[in-house]
Amino acid sequence: MPAKPEPSLAALPRWEMALYWALSLGSHLYSFYEVHSFSKEHERGLDREFPLERGFLIWGLKRSQSVVLCGSQDAADFEWSFWSDWAKKSLLCSLMGHAAVSRLASVYLPQWHLAILTVYGVLVACNLLGLRGVAVLMLQLSVSLTVAQLHSPALCWGSSLLLLSTLHISSLQDIQRDWYESEDQYYLLLFSVAVCGLRCISFSLEFCWSASGQPQQQQQQQQQQQQSQCCPLQVGGAQQTRRLSSFLSQLYRLCAYCFYHPVFFNGPIIIYRDFSQQALIHCMHMHSIQSNETYLEILPPWALGGLALALVQFFYVKYLVLFGVPSLLVRMDGLEPPALPRCVSIMYSFTGMWR
């Protein structure tokens, strides 16, 4: 039976494409204008409930001058404000240092490339989190790897969830807060522990599901049983040495995976530096508006639609930057990162927006 020919896609007329573009751009601009007008109208009320920051907006203008153009900056998005501050302090420099170290290692010491990147990631983590913070992470890694030796995915999930639940123990929170001078450093430790916990889950499950390791282990166990009948003392010592060597090798791989610097602190970290990336939070106080139920109820329909569109657009741009820069560094190291999120304005389904 002959195969059915695949249906061909006909190109739309130019006038129809132009009409769609005009309608799309017009609705975007008008809805954003409604959100901006609502933000300006209720700026004082928003400032009382969610203090707005003064910031620059356009090329080289000072913070006080941006108020004349678009008003105050919406700083209600904690995640963006938090990572922007850390990027200004040290993370942007450490990412550039990673790129330089990785390039030099790949040229002059390619056989030690992974080890050098691991040492660099651990040193940066020690600098930002302190020795106690890195000790907490190493304890988490060691416990996860020890449980993974049992080859039980259920136990791996259970231990990982128990480790993550320690983040909510108030007594431990008080102890860890005392380690740092500022609250931001403590939150950086929380983010690091949570993300490392997710990586430990991935590593442990891959270790449990490894199909290639099972036959080899069975053969090794049979050989060890046969040898133990001849000289049990020598075989027992050799088994312990091999197990310790294997455990240390696995711990090294886990450290290399978890302390890989470009994606260590919750993925890529960088701040917006130009008009197109900062315009939304200066001209439209969308994060503050969405946090106030009263303002949501009195929003005009066009402004409500513009608010929803602005939130998803800012979410897309934020993670395009937060994941884009580390993805570039990951590709420089010869790895293939996950695909970046796609713009929501050109999609009919959200399945490809978040990856």
Question: How would you describe what is shown here?
Answer:
This is GPI mannosyltransferase 2. It is a single chain. This protein has 355 residues and is mainly alpha-helical. The protein has 14 helices and no strands. The protein folds into two domains: 43-73 and 277-352, no CATH class; 86-208 and 235-263, no CATH class. 71% of the residues lie in helices and 0% in strands. α4 runs parallel beside α14, α5 (113-148) packs across α6 (153-165) and α6 runs antiparallel to α8 (183-209).
Tag the structure with descriptive keywords.
2 domains, GPI mannosyltransferase 2, transmembrane helix, mainly alpha, 355 residues
Question: Mean pLDDT, as a whole number?
Answer: 69
- Over the alpha carbons, how many angstroms does the gyration radius reach? 26 Å
Shape: globular
Number of domains: 2
Distance between the termini: 40 Å
Helix content: over 70%
Question: What fraction of residues sit in β-strands?
Answer: under 5%
The counted number of beta strands is 0
Order of helices and strands: HHHHHHHHHHHHHH
- Please identify the structural class as seen in this structure: mainly alpha
Number of helices: 14
- How would a textbook summarize the main sheet? none
Low-confidence stretches: 56-75, 215-219, 268-284
